[in-house]
Amino acid sequence: MTSTYSKESKRATKNQTRQARKSKKQNADRTRKRKRIAELAAIIPEGREQLLQLMQDSMESFAIEIGAQVAYSLLEDEVQRLCGPRYQRDPERTASRHGSQPGVIHIGGQKVRIDKPRVRATDGHHQEIDLATYETMQTEGTMPAAALKRMLRGVSTRDYEGVIDTARDAFGIKKSSVSRGFVKATKNELEKFAAKRFDGQRMAAIMIDGLDFAGFMMVCAIGIAADGHKHVLGLRLGATEDAQVVASLLSDLRDRGISTAHHTLFVLDGSKALASGVKRIWGDRAVIQRCQVHKHRNVRSHLPKQHHVELKRRLYEAYYGNDYDEAVKQLRSTVAWLKHINPDAAASLSEGLEETLTVIRLGVRPQLRRTLSTTNAIESAFDRVRTLTRRVKRWRDGDMRHRWCLAGLQRAEESFNRVKGYTTIPLLIETLESQSLENNNNAA
């Protein structure tokens, strides 16, 4: 009896000791947290206004540092124009580098120290040559605070070329000069773009969409090559998504080396005009995939808001399945459901119903299917165009719209990544080719 009581007493003592240690540790943690909060309170200024000022000062410091780096790059650019590339002998050059010295420039209303490159003449007098860019940067009022904000925004969106443009403008390059230079550069790019050839490149899929741009319809084509890379193929300006505009665009692509002899998957926004224009050039070798996102939007626009969630569930169930026949059955069931709500919504879904499921019928793998079932790639590229042109207030003519739209698309193309699931594109091409062979056998 005594032995049993002793064991229970020891067990209770251990539990009490364990609880005491746990409580002591918790109290120590609370003390450390309170101490840390007190330290932060001493560092952070009291009041919302002071805190916002501290954050603003930090951002301005970061922006000034970026401005100084860009300024140094501009100075180096002038030095290279005067002296030529580093470490290359040129007996005809008239100036040479001569180290650097401390200098001061104006950025955002502040004087900022910078290492100023030095240049001297190569004649017998070795007279120092003043850098015009440095003299401009020393003028008060260059690189105002507004320009710093635009530069900071450019860095945050990784638009580094835009940052350079902003800096050059802020450091004294006239707006009219930049505009003329831009017109000249984009016209040259337009000529190169129009002459760009695609001989030997197999386009597994071509996306075509028409989007509103500055009051006009821009019809754009983006191709997905066999290696998964995306290419801006062409651009046409029209009043609407007209079949003739699309046919003209595709005819031009054919002349520039894109073969119409292969079966090709065309991802279209659902417009009958686009499909008609594609079939006019590609014939029965055009395999049409209607954009599922456009179809969803069109059907949803006919429905009251309380039915949107159910419509989305039904469409997603069909579009994300792997069985073509089952997906067709699910969509037809949705058509029957819509007839009780709005016959127009049912008619919208019925139109081209099977063509919204082409990627499932072809057995495209799920990861690649998400890209090829919509024209989102074009809409994403046009978002970049709209960002580039958001400050343009007056469009003089169609040529100006074309130039700016092209410039934005080319900048977007530079950041294109290969499509997700690109390793399965050869399987898609093989399926398209087998379909071509099947059609030839049926014709025979």
What order do the helices and strands come in, and which of them pair?
Blueprint: H1 2-43, H2 48-83, E1 95-107, E2 110-121, H3 132-137, H4 145-156, H5 160-170, H6 175-195, E3 203-213, E4 216-225, E5 230-238, H7 243-255, E6 264-268, H8 272-282, E7 286-290, H9 292-300, H10 308-319, H11 324-339, H12 343-350, H13 358-361, H14 366-372, H15 376-388, H16 398-414, H17 425-443
Parallel strand pairs: 3-6, 6-7
Antiparallel strand pairs: 1-2, 3-4, 4-5
Helix pairs in contact: 2-4, 2-5, 4-5, 6-16, 7-8, 9-12, 10-11, 11-12, 15-16
Briefly, what is this?
The protein has 444 residues and is of the alpha/beta class. The chain contains 17 helices and 7 strands. It has 2 domains: 52-85 and 94-173, no CATH class; 201-443, no CATH class.
> From the helix content, strand content and strand pairing, which structural class follows?
alpha/beta
What is the average per-residue confidence, as pLDDT, rounded to a whole number?
Answer: 77
**Measured on Cα atoms, how large is the radius of gyration?**
32 Å
The major beta sheet can be summarized as: 5 strands, mixed
Low-confidence stretches: 43-48, 151-161, 173-179, 440-444
- Strand percent estimate: 5-15%
Distance between the termini: 102 Å
- The total number of structural domains is 2
Share of residues in helices? 55-70%
Specify the overall morphology: flat
Helix-strand pattern, N to C?
A: HHEEHHHHEEEHEHEHHHHHHHHH
**What is the tally of beta strands?**
7
- Give the spatial strand order of the biggest sheet: 5-4-3-6-7
Number of helices: 17
